[in-house]
UniProtKB/TrEMBL annotation:
Coiled coil: none
PANTHER family reported in the protein's UniProt record: RNA-BINDING PROTEIN
Location, primary (coarse class): nucleus
Membrane-spanning ranges: none
Organism name: Triticum turgidum subsp. durum
Domain of life: Eukaryota
Location of this chain's protein in the cell: Nucleus
Keyword Nucleus in annotation: yes
Protein family: Belongs to the splicing factor SR family.
CDD domains, per the entry: RRM2_U2AF65, RRM3_U2AF65
Function: Necessary for the splicing of pre-mRNA.
Name of the protein: Splicing factor U2af large subunit
One Gene Ontology term of the molecular function aspect: RNA binding
Lineage: Eukaryota, Viridiplantae, Streptophyta, Embryophyta, Tracheophyta
Length: 330
C-alpha cells in the first residue's frame, strides 16, 4: 500500500484514486490554493513562484526578506471538511518558519470563520469612523481598513473580528444594506455560509440597528448646514501640480464663490512634490462668514458641469476644516 493512502474494505474504492488526474486536480484545487495579498506592484507570476519555492525549501516544506508585507490566507471557497479527507488539515509543526523570518499566527486576529467583510464604505471614511461604527456592537479583536498602496487612501472595504464572537451575525444583519451617503454597505462573514441571528439575539439586534441609524446621521456628511462647502469633481491632481495653473484655479474659485456671500477662505489641497499622500487632493473647500452664504453656494454649484463632470457640493464639518482634516467628505 502506498504511503498516505487510506485502506478500503473489499468492494469499496477511493473516488479520488479512481478519478482521472485532471478531475482529481480540480476536486482538490480548493484545498491546494492560498490567497496572497499585499504584493508590491513589481511582482509577477514568475517572481512569486520563485519566491514561494525558495521559502518552502528553506522551511523544510514541499517547496522573505525586505519589501512590503504580504497577506497569505485560504481563499473564500476553501472547505475545511472536504480538505480534511484529502490529507493533513493542519500545517506541519515541523516547518521552520523562522528560517524565512515568519512568525505563525501573526495575522492580527483577522482569520477564522468569524472574520467579517465590510464593503461599500464611502472612501472618505477614516479608520476611526469605521471602527466607531463597527464597535457599536462591541470591542474589536482585529481590524483592517484596506488602503491603496500608492495613495494611502481607503479602497472602500475592511475586515474585522469581534472579541465576542456571538455578535458576529448580529453586526452583519444590522449593518448589511445600510445606506451611507451614495454607498450601500455589504457586511457578511468573509467566509460564506453565515448564520442568522438566534431568537434570543433579536433585542440586541434591534438596539444595535437604532444605534447605527444614529451614527449614520452623524457620518452623513452634508446632512446639516455649515459655513464650509466641499466641492468635488472640479479639479484633478495633475492640474494642481503646475504652480501657475494652481494660482489660476484659486483665482477663478475666489471670483465664482464670492458671488454667493462673504467668502472667508478658499482651500485647494495639492499633491506633495515628493509624491507623499496628501489629504483632500481633488477637493475644493469654501469657507463663508455665515451659513446663508454657504447654503447659496452649495445650491448654485451642486450639479453644475465642470470639465464634462457634474460638480458635487456638500456641507463640510467646521471643526474638521479648522483642524485641516480634509478627509471627512467625498
Amino acid at each position: 500500500m502506498f504511503p498516505n493512502m487510506l485502506p478500503f474494505a473489499v468492494g469499496q474504492f477511493n473516488p479520488l484514486v479512481m478519478q482521472p488526474q485532471a478531475m482529481t486536480q480540480q476536486a482538490t484545487r480548493h484545498a491546494r490554493r492560498v490567497y496572497v495579498g499585499g504584493l508590491p506592484p513589481s511582482a509577477n507570476e514568475q517572481s512569486v513562484a520563485i519566491y514561494f519555492n525558495q521559502v518552502m525549501a528553506a522551511i523544510g516544506g514541499n517547496t522573505a526578506g525586505p519589501g512590503a508585507p504580504v497577506k497569505v490566507r485560504r481563499p473564500t471557497d476553501y472547505n475545511p471538511s472536504l480538505a480534511a479527507a484529502l490529507g493533513p488539515s493542519q500545517p506541519s509543526s515541523n516547518l521552520n518558519l523562522a528560517a524565512v523570518g515568519l512568525t505563525p499566527g501573526s495575522a492580527g486576529g483577522l482569520e477564522g470563520p468569524d472574520r467579517i467583510f465590510v464593503g461599500g464604505l464611502p472612501y472618505y471614511f477614516t479608520e476611526a469612523q469605521v471602527r466607531e461604527l463597527l464597535e457599536s456592537f462591541g470591542p474589536l479583536r482585529g481590524f483592517d481598513l484596506v488602503k491603496d498602496r500608492e495613495t494611502g487612501n481607503s479602497k472602500g472595504y475592511a475586515f474585522c473580528v469581534y472579541q465576542d464572537l456571538n455578535v458576529t451575525d448580529i453586526a452583519c444583519a444590522a449593518l448589511n444594506g445600510i445606506k451611507m451617503g451614495d454607498k450601500t454597505l455589504t457586511v457578511r462573514r468573509a467566509n460564506q455560509g453565515s448564520a442568522q441571528p438566534r431568537p434570543e439575539q433579536e433585542n440586541i439586534l434591534l438596539q444595535a440597528q437604532q444605534q447605527v441609524q444614529l451614527q449614520k446621521l452623524v457620518y452623513q456628511v452634508g446632512a446639516l448646514p455649515t459655513k464650509v462647502v466641499c466641492l468635488t469633481q472640479v479639479v484633478t491632481a495633475d492640474e494642481l501640480k503646475d504652480d501657475e495653473e494652481y494660482e489660476d484655479i484659486m483665482e477663478d474659485m475666489r471670483l465664482e464663490a464670492g458671488k454667493y456671500g462673504n467668502l472667508v477662505k478658499v482651500v485647494i489641497p495639492r499633491p506633495h512634490p515628493s509624491g507623499e499622500p496628501v489629504s483632500g487632493v481633488g477637493k475644493v473647500f469654501l469657507e463663508y462668514a455665515d451659513v446663508d452664504g454657504s447654503t447659496k453656494a452649495k445650491t448654485a454649484m451642486h450639479g453644475r458641469k465642470f470639465g464634462g463632470n457634474p460638480v458635487v457640493a456638500v456641507f463640510y464639518p467646521e471643526n474638521k476644516f479648522a483642524d485641516e482634516d480634509y478627509d471627512a467628505a467625498a
